[in-house]
Batch of 2 targets.
Target 1
Amino acid sequence: MSTATLIKAPKAPVIHLLIAIALMWGSVVTAEWMKPRKYWADVVGEPHYETLVPTRFGEWERLPDAGGRVVSPAQEEYLLSLYSEIYAHSFVHKPTGRVLMLSIAYGRDQTNDSQIHTPDACYPSQGFRINKREQVDLQTAYGIIKSVRLTTSMGAQRTEPLTYFIRVGDEIARGSKERNIQRLAMALRGYRVDGTLFRVSEITRSELAFALQEKFINDLLSTLTATQRRSLIGDNRS
Amino acid sequence: MSNEALGLAAHAPAKPWLPISGDILAYAIGMLGMFSFTVYDLLYNGDNALWSKGEFSHGPIMLTVAMFLLVTRWREYDQPLAPHRRDIWLSWAILAFGVLIHSVSRALTIVHLEVASFIPVIISMVLRVGGTPLLNKLKFPVFFFVFMVPLPGFITDPISQFIKMRVTEVVTELLWQAGYPITHTGVVIAIGPYQLLVADACAGMRTLFMLEAMGIFYINVVKHSSLLRNVALATLIVPISFTANVTRVIFLALLTYHFGDEVGQGFLHGFAGIVLFVAGLLFTIMIDALLRSIAAIIDKRRHAA
């Protein structure tokens, strides 16, 4: 069978078909032209939380890392595939002796699907129950921080209330929708955003746990320089 | 012998394997340019290579199945290809829409929409060539392309999370009853000295999605007349996929327990995926047979009455 019978003459005018092809190819070219190239992390400077967070500030002092921290290699590998830097240390509140755990996860490029995983999903996966979820606007000297408070527990013995917030680019964004809107808004300005998950928690039954966490956040923010603060809470003027 | 066969074939009315018209060829060239970058990204481009990740790796299979359906159904179509003027305009509008979505989502790296824009372009092509009657004939294959689109995390994650938790609980309960030393915290199963993480890829939205796709494919190929039976089957695929997932995790847990971590994580891990699909397909066919016999009984009674 010859190709003449296999390919019939087009019904549509050839010029129409050429326009259709041009439209389709053009979409890729336009996309390439519109694509954001600059990393927001390069504009504000990529943060290194290991050096950025001081080992002692205010009434807080970092505890030496306990050697016995159990981390499964598979889980660690998975976390490192999600984040560019993971910071995890405990701080003791000297007046009371209470210990808070601070964990910061940083992702340099948040323009794709491997976005920051929030404790709302992580904690239940590790066997915690979320007993209560509350959205709070933390009042700080540097503006409002839109954060989330979770009351979690594992079994009957361990209750772990925690406060977390997420920075995307230059803003605090709560919830996946806000994060994506922020990501797109920055992309329209030509930037690929980075993101930071900031989480502070304590193993306690105290009713006042959240107040101490709020104090921790305030104390930490006030010891940092403006540039350092920006890599935690963005240029937060709201 | 073979010469004779060839001779006979030559005298038979020659129907081209696929009546490719210039219109389709033009669209094919356009789409090749438009989507080959997308496919490349989906397979090789680091974090965006969703099709190479476990959770979304069903994408290429779904694309192949949808393409197969499209070609098969198209070949069955024997009406004259005479698109109405209105269809042509519609075709342009849908093409423009698809191209716009593709371009914006590609620029902003919204890979889900970028893949989804394939569907309006295909619709535009079908309208251009055969108008609304042809689109009507091909609506199922066109719909089937939906299954190749990787769903964004904010839709799948809560559902996946829910399924994983329930699968873990059921597996633990069953094996505990069978006398195995098994517990779980969250989605981490501890069996004997081993720990297994029930990952998204193992028992999440993905398998539900894929089994649902297979089920719909099965329903469409078997072609039942009864709408009720089709809907019932499509709904029942959800518990079927759940059961198939439980089967798979039990299979893996027992492998790990009896033969060690290396066996459980090795090539048999992939084999467990096959177990899942065979189990899913068998359950589907069994339930279908059951539904069919119930329908037959109801039919008989109606005739008797």
Target 2
Amino acid sequence: MSTPDMRERIDAFPTHRIGPYRVRAGRPFPYGATPVPGGVNFSVYSDGATTMSLVLFERGGTRPSAELEFPLEFRIGSVYAMTVFGLDAENLEYGFRAAGPYAPEHGDRFDAGKVLSDPYARLISGREVWGREPDWDNVYHYRAQVLNDDFDWDGDRPLRIPAEDLVIYETHVRGFTRHPSSKVSAPGTYAGMREKIPYLRELGVNCLELLPVFEFDELDNPRTDPATGERLYNYWGYNTVSFFAPKAGYAATGPFGMQADEFKSLVKELHRAGIEVVLDVVFNHTAEGNEQGPTISFRGLDNATYYMLTPRGEYYNFSGTGNTVNCNHPVVRDFVLSCLRHWVAEYHIDGFRFDLAAILDRAPDGTPLPNPPLLEQLAHDPILRHTKLIAEAWDAAGLYQVGNFPNYGRWSEWNGKYRDTVRRFVKGEPGLVGELATRMAGSPDLYQGRTSSASVNFITAHDGFTLADLVSYNDKHNEANGEDNNDGANDNNSWNCGEEGPSASPHVRELRMRQMKNLLTILLTSQGIPMILAGDEVGRTQLGNNNTYCQDNELSWFDWGLVEANAGLLHFTQALIAFRHAHPVLRSSDHPSGTDRVGSGYPDISWHGVRAWAPDWADHGRVLAMMRCGRHAKGGSVADDHVYIAVNAHWEAHDLELPALPEGQRWHLFADTATAVHPLGAEPELQHPGRFHLGAHSAVVLVGRAAQQTTA
Amino acid sequence: MAFDVRLKINDKVATIELKGELDASTAGEFHDTVGRAAGAGAVELVIHAEQLGYLSSAGLRSLVFARQKMGDEVRIAIVGATDPVAQTIRLAGFDHSIELVDA
């Protein structure tokens, strides 16, 4: 039996004519523009519109080539759907024009003078080249286009790396290779990033977390650098214009409209290299901003549906950016869910980090919901079943949910308490030994009853100081942002090691290097999912700027010259990551209990101080040692060595008494942040088996195993 | 230069010569030619692109079409692509499924 030609089906014939265009009533789902036999199906939702038109442009045209008003019989419920035949989809840009009431006090802000972008557009033109000044008089800036999903995935499958085995690397598509030192063929693009995959492999990370890649407008920042007069950008991209479209300005092939393929190629190659891809997604607000913001899409289609509004029709602002998406409205829930499904199904994305995720559990009036339907739906969605869901579990209006974000057994959280505790301990603050122990054990106080991968441990992220700046500045230095240094966080828990900013002092420089290694050591030996900010492994600086959201320049870009200049730090980080991968005892999914559950004679985790088995929990204590018993690795299911980590945040050295190992085993030195790091399997045995001299502001990692295995 | 596409098949090796610009207006002709090569059971497809001056997004997508039409087991080589054309193919990531060969 042969397959019938789709063009011969009855539903592939037009039934109406609008001007020269042959059309028929379309299919309401999926929303957006979808190629169908002989034409393109357009579908858009608006509850309050009185009329709706499809606006067609020839690609790049300044005026519409046609406007097709949806016949009334093409409307089902509040969805307008129409199939238009004979279109040249390759050369087509489209939008919608919605007429309806302008009554802000009732939530309506219809404006028939605007051409609106399709919220479900899977391709956007208008900003194909990063930073290129557009024609601001253009009637339609963010132009929806039709996408052909014909990418050759070549058998690509999800890696499904267990969450507890991840090492996340947070980076920015443009910033990663835009610096001239990157030496890639297309700097600042998905293609450029693809060329750096060997670097990521050598580093050892297995998950790339990308700052927003949904289409945004980098040119919507009106500020200039007060010192140079140069324009500032919306560099980070937390101002989404179009949620289903990859940013064209990040694609070398954006001018060809090939950004989807270029990004998919990056994902495919990362998967081949054993690296998952997590996207930082921003559903808490949109680029339309507050009452003074532009009408791009949602505001003109159904303002009262998409945004949280006060009883007087003003925008609630839980995001700090002017508007807040009405995430738990059923229509918006469907939008968010469809969007994430799209990125998983079409782009093979492995997970998402949700910016200001606490907003996702607010009701339309802003009240936190005890059982937010959106979060529950995402947790149990069939398409998202194996994707990682990571919440930034707070918002800009003070809802702080670290440890109690509604998780449904699925969600992880950026652990802000981990960040603050580790920073404060390492800079030498007193009274933190006990809390550091809790954080290094996977924060069971916050995540009891959940796996330890509920905690995404991080010390630095894009928002805040880099690792190098954390040990070089007491205060933020954001003057270049043009906000009189009032922007960015003030509570950085940083310490400049004796001198603010760059230092010529060998002592200060050496101390800073050691502090960076101390911080990395804690991060990569803690239970939970570690996340590293790109460039921290080579000491990248932002010269004290802790809020480079607007800095599209050397302040933000990865300087690849540091790979050579700070090769020692890079080597140390690589070694630590490799150590973590080699020692499953650091990556158990269950929280340690402090008891012996496998009959090894040792508890799964034990705490020590200057004296073995005698941790100093006192306020003045600044030394903490943690021993993990290898027999308990992954719940006792795999074999591993004992691992001992000690951190000294004191300004004086200490002679540590080491806990005794099982008969026939000896302690071997993997890393001492004051001296050296040794190759895996070739760690030298300690000369004094029961003691270790730990320098001031230093950390040590020892591995316990049979003496005869030593090769050094 | 006007677009021109010619197909030769010799011992299961299909050779396509392209001239001019491969874009939305010419992609259909290229698709038909690829379809004929696939229909003839070619086990290798060699696309001579020395005289291909421009490749639009529709042209790039034609290469995706060729890959899918010919099947995974068929080697596809593009011979002598000019630097801009080769660069476009590389940046889009198609050089992993289609071989770029110097003339």
